[in-house]
Amino acid sequence: MTRNAPKNDVDEARLEVHQPKTWAAGVPGVTVSLLRSIEQMGTSRTVRTLRLLNQREGFDCPGCAWPEPQGSAGEHRKLAEFCENGAKAVAEEATKRRVGPEFFAAHPVAELAGRTDYWLGQQGRLTHPMVLREGASHYEPISWDDAFELIARHLRALSTPDEALFYTSGRTSNEAAFLYQLLVRSFGTNNLPDCSNMCHESSGTALSETTGIGKGSVSLADIHQADLIVVVGQNPGTNHPRMLSALEKAKSHGAKIVAVNPLPEAGLMRFKNPQSPRGVLGKGTALADEFAQVRLGGDLALFQAVGHLLLSWEDAAPGTVVDREFVDGSTHGFDDYARNLREIDWAEIDRATGLPREQIERIARLIAGSRRTVYCWAMGLTQHRHAVATIQEITNVALLRGMIGRPGAGLCPVRGHSNVQGDRTMGVWEKMPERFLAALETEFGIAVPRKHGLDTVDSIRAMRDGAAKVFIGMGGNFAAATPDSELTERALSASELTVHVSTKLNRSHVVHGRTALILPTLGRTERDVQASGEQFVTVEDSMSCVHASRGRLRPAGDELLSEVSIICRLARTLLGPDHPVPWAEFARDYDLIRDRIARVVPGCEDYNKRVREPDGFVLPHPPRDERRFETATGKANFTASELEYPRVPEGRLLLQTLRSHDQYNTTIYGLSDRYRGIEDGRRVVLVHAEDLAELGFAEGEVVDVVSEWEGTERRAERFRLVAYPTARGCAAAYFPEANALVPLDSVAKKSNTPVSKAVIIRLAHRTG
Ligand SMILES: Nc1nc2c(c(=O)[nH]1)N[C@H]1C(S)=C(S)[C@@H](COP(=O)(O)OP(=O)(O)OC[C@H]3O[C@@H](n4cnc5c(=O)[nH]c(N)nc54)[C@H](O)[C@@H]3O)O[C@H]1N2
Ligand SMILES: Nc1nc2c(c(=O)[nH]1)N[C@H]1C(S)=C(S)[C@@H](COP(=O)(O)OP(=O)(O)OC[C@H]3O[C@@H](n4cnc5c(=O)[nH]c(N)nc54)[C@H](O)[C@@H]3O)O[C@H]1N2
Ligand SMILES: [Mo]
What we know:
Elements: E1 2-3, E2 16-17, E3 24-25, H1 27-41, H2 43-52, H3 71-75, H4 84-94, E4 98-99, H5 101-106, H6 109-112, H7 117-122, E5 125-126, E6 130-132, E7 140-141, H8 144-156, E8 164-168, H9 174-187, H10 201-211, H11 220-225, E9 228-232, H12 236-239, H13 242-252, E10 256-260, H14 266-269, E11 270-272, H15 277-281, E12 285-286, E13 290-292, H16 299-316, H17 324-330, E14 331-332, H18 334-342, H19 346-353, H20 357-369, E15 373-377, H21 379-382, H22 387-400, E16 410-413, H23 420-425, H24 434-444, H25 456-464, E17 470-474, H26 478-481, H27 485-493, E18 497-502, H28 507-510, E19 515-520, E20 528-530, E21 533-535, E22 537-540, E23 545-549, H29 563-575, H30 583-588, H31 590-600, H32 607-610, E24 617-618, H33 622-626, E25 636-637, E26 653-658, E27 663-664, E28 667-668, E29 672-673, E30 678-679, E31 684-687, H34 689-695, E32 702-709, E33 712-723, E34 730-734, E35 759-765
Parallel strand pairs: 1-33, 3-11, 4-5, 8-17, 9-10, 9-15, 10-13, 14-25, 15-16, 17-18, 18-19, 26-34, 31-33
Antiparallel strand pairs: 2-30, 6-7, 6-19, 11-12, 20-21, 22-23, 23-24, 26-35, 27-28, 29-30, 31-34, 32-33, 32-35
Helix pairs in contact: 1-2, 1-4, 2-4, 8-29, 9-29, 10-22, 16-19, 16-20, 16-22, 25-27
The structure holds ligand MGD (2 copies) and molybdenum atom.
One ligand MGD binds next to helix 12, helix 21, strand 26 and strand 27.
GO molecular function, one term: formate dehydrogenase (NAD+) activity
Domain Molybdopterin dinucleotide-binding: 653-757
Organism: Amycolatopsis rhizosphaerae
């Protein structure tokens, strides 16, 4: 399969490559964010908007899920509690540009399908519900009522509700997410694939088995108090910039930082805090004390080696390394774990990690000597075949040292989308537990299905095979975010109906089913006024804190409906006026939704009152709160795993797909990957200079990239080679351009997450 670069792509001839930076944030960060904001919003709207970002009376940043400071620290929230990339996320949403009926009249869908994600996103906010009728060349306006009728007609015509798919991206508020899953289950299916299936599913799976809860166990205060922070497979300087302030604070108390990454990411090396004069003017704070440049997928081996060393030091001096009291009292499976790691094959560890043994030993020493260790990770761990085992190996090391349920310590999967964790808490999951489903039935007097639904990868398979015919997306950009672009786009195009509730134009609108709808919705920044008055919504951050978010800007258009209204009106049309759920009342007053959340969702008692507290409230987390583990054994479980790492054939490279500094997933803000020194272009592959030489390629050459998977090949054309200091044998290219290379069937064991960080590729010279 070959995927051609869009014809009118940005001119790659302009691409410039500079030296990668060795520090992150600081003045350029602030200047860039202000310029981008003013470009999209104008000056006065910029000032008004950024003033409300992440303030107690304002809206939650639609960027990442990193938490805001709480309690007395929250009193001192800096006026600018935002980062460069948060400001870009806001500018993208609060832009003054508009995509209305005239735009669609002027641009046939076939033309839009040839545009890049960047171009599509830059056109502005969607303002009117639009329909693409079967066989038509253009989207045309449709009334909201007709749009809901059309969807209901298609859904009712299915032979079973399981032929419909209901996707969610993680920006949806708790209120909308709760109603969305209620609608989907009332209709009769658990087909609730979400972006989490491609994101932290592996973390949820790993942690549920080991600690009994699929969420992280640390608070911001824990990070501040830690004496050792291990950051694995994460690029906070770009994707969670406010995390750098937390790392800086920990450092100021003497904490050490270990960074494990195939790339020397600027944000792991040095931070110049834009919110302190010292940061702006001085050298900034050095972050990583130990930078382990691991090979892609080598982390399981690394943490097995660390575990092995810790155990051998314990054997040599019993009682000095293992937290006996915790291990004996609160865990299960330690002996099997210890037996598994008693003997390890160092030659295999060397091949898997590419790390010097002395460095592994230094890292193990830091871990053995730390009294308060926090482990942070993101996509560098979750998107591998052996992702679940890798996260469990880190958990093993944490358990061995008793680093859970202790101040300043714990496990911290750093979430992506600003409300991806909340959406799961509210029931957006294809396999919610029985307890939740039963509570829904009791609360609403409805029957909900028990058969597990389809996740993202299985949804694509179902569309490909004709087993799913209607696709509805509550936010997100399914066509571009998913693996195997060619196959996925064909699967979507084979659907009878595709519907997208969206704020901005994206590829999923132009790779459409036979009939397609675009339903424009309010963003986080906008005022949401309903019959009972102005509404707010609630979200949950990466550290289980639930709080209110209130948009203050004028909506992008008079026709826009809130996500809650869209769900309620669709539900009324589809399920009829006699349905036991009071959909119309919910749309009038979101407090009524929250009353139900309080009764159905564990830990949300008294929801309306508690989300009105200035900082909201923190959901219960038994391991963190009382060292209680709701697992099958009633204890925290050690795991004994085989050593596993990606094997790369001769002449091939291992490719990871990642984010540039100037994008939010499939939303491309601009073409400047500033910290990595890549300007004015995105179709690049970063490869070590010595690998380029060995493979017989020249820096700057434009090549095709071919991925190899079980006898099949996928090809993406025209990528420029950049010599880059990545780990040997490893390469990197940007998502979503490189998604064409990720095979649909290459998934993580247990979590079914696409393996986007370990794609076997070869480079091919272009002929002619
Ligand atoms: N500005 C901005 N913020 C974002 C996003 C965005 O696109 N833009 N996306 C949001 C979302 S949804 C998410 S999930 C997060 C993603 O946040 P990240 O996980 O930081 O995102 P990626 O760009 O995928 O970066 C993966 C990092 O892991 C490293 N890595 C890759 N493979 C391996 C490996 O095998 N081992 C190790 N040790 N490291 C590895 C890469 O070199 C890179 O530094 O960010 C969220 N925040
Ligand atoms: N190869 C590769 N693939 C990946 C990844 C990778 O690292 N490599 N990362 C994966 C990860 S971690 C994730 S989370 C997924 C992301 O997958 P998605 O969440 O599906 O993708 P996004 O690009 O975040 O979605 C952007 C769109 O959301 C819509 N939107 C924005 N705000 C709102 C809102 O408030 N309401 C509504 N209704 N719509 C809104 C806009 O129309 C915008 O175009 O991608 C995954 N895909
Ligand atoms: Mo994500």
